[in-house]
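Build the 3D complex.
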Amino acid sequence: MRGSRLIRFLLLAPAVIVVLAVSAFPMINTFILSFREWRLDRSPTPQGFVGFENYARAFGDRFFWNSISVTATFTVISVTMSVVLGLAFALVLQKPSRLNTFAKTLLIFPFAVAPILKGFSWRFMLNPSWGVYDTLLDALIPPARDVVWLADPFWAQFWLAVSEVWGWAPIIALMFVGALGAIPTDIFEAAKVEGASNWQLFWKVTLPLLSPVIVIITLLKTIFSLKMFDQVVSMTGGGPGRATQTLNYYVYINGFRFLDMGYASALAYILIVALTIFAVFYVRALYRQGAV
Amino acid sequence: MSNSRYIWRKRLGWLVEKVAVLFILLFIAFPIYWLLITAFKPEEFVYSNAFIFPPTLANFRAIFAGDPLDFKPYLLNSLVISTATVLLAIPLATMAAYTLSRYAFKGSLPLLIWFLTTQFLPPVVVVIPFFILFRRLGLVDTQISLIIINLSLVVPYAVWMLKGFVDALPTEIEEAAVVDGCNEFEVLRRITFPLMMPGVITTAVFAFIMSWNEFLYALVLTRDEATTMTVGLLSTQTHRGVQWEWMSAAGLLVMVPIFFLSLTIRNYFVEGMTMGAVK
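Done.
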């Protein structure tokens, strides 16, 4: 069947226009804004062009560098924990049993919880006076009694990442369950006949066969970690101090609290550069995997 | 001797496995369980880690009471915005997905990749120019502004998901209909669209979930009139700090509808999320 060119065009155009409007328009607009001075509280229309001043300002701004380091730390911790735990969960749950089937059904729930709510829920459980996880941890690890989790820069970063891992490790586990199921079982049987232990089986057979999927999932999770925003608002508010102020959050407060549109746009573009790098790797990994 | 050691190792392995499954279940379910029971706790039991308490609906009454909290408009806004987003996005995406699947042309793969990469755009970048635009048009704090911007979230995913569904439909039925004298529009209306329906519904549910859980756009683009449930959660923070029993009750209203929806599409969740990269 061959549709005429006109029909094809008419069917595609609406979606293409919408996606153009909501991606190209903001990208171009923000790019231009990043070269302008525009304090929304002082002027309702953009002020003059300032060249690279906004970018130069970012590189001299220690809070910007702080946000880069916070974002990098958060991304590394949350990606590593999500992928490792996700794989571990999948390996535990892959054996068919009624309990495991039930557990696999539960895996989609944390991911379906709105991220803003995840942040609230973890903050609630970590409250130093009556948080249920705080009480539990105090009982298990006595030195933890003196720690106010979200008031400590190190632990606030850690728990922020945990709230993200809580949502993502289960869905990643589900992805790995699918990938593990796609490995032909005779490979394992052959290896067992050759006398391989479970440990060897995992490192020498399972892991190499999973590696393309691991790469794709890791890149995907990295992109989502770089974009994470909601839990910062509901869990830490960027604090204590600026310990959990990610680049996303720093763009947000510059744009919508200080109303400095030019500077926020420049910061946003720096974030885009970082994301583009990972996006390119991701698309390349998809091609290699034959997924597109 | 070695035989009994083997049996013990096996039993130990069984135990370790069950403990691991139990740990996973607790890790996943406990935060949800805790939110669930807190929502039904009387205030005096909230701040004491009680597992046993007389359940009450007082917190739900409180968040709809009107003073100081009123979640009615938030709930309505979330419903209207998410539903409208889905109703606009799905027809567009269905047409595009059908075309990209059935009439693949030279540019269709780059087009799909481009759709995919728009999802890597951080929302905070998208929202800056839209905030400025909507401000100029007087659309800040309206449902329309959120519906428009939520399309950015939903349309690319919907195209990818639906294309997967159309790819899976055999073309033979359509070809047979053409042989029997149906024209292209009749084929679409009578054969292809009915066959696509399960995929369309799955995609619509997925799109609804994304739109319902969205937070940043709603935070920037609403003040009081168009506030959604996710942004409304912030209102449980009073001068005395967050009122956790109210937050839990409101949180439950955000979470529970999505749980039911997720269950209906659970087999497609992973594929939708990864745009088909991991099946």
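The mean pLDDT of chain A is 88.
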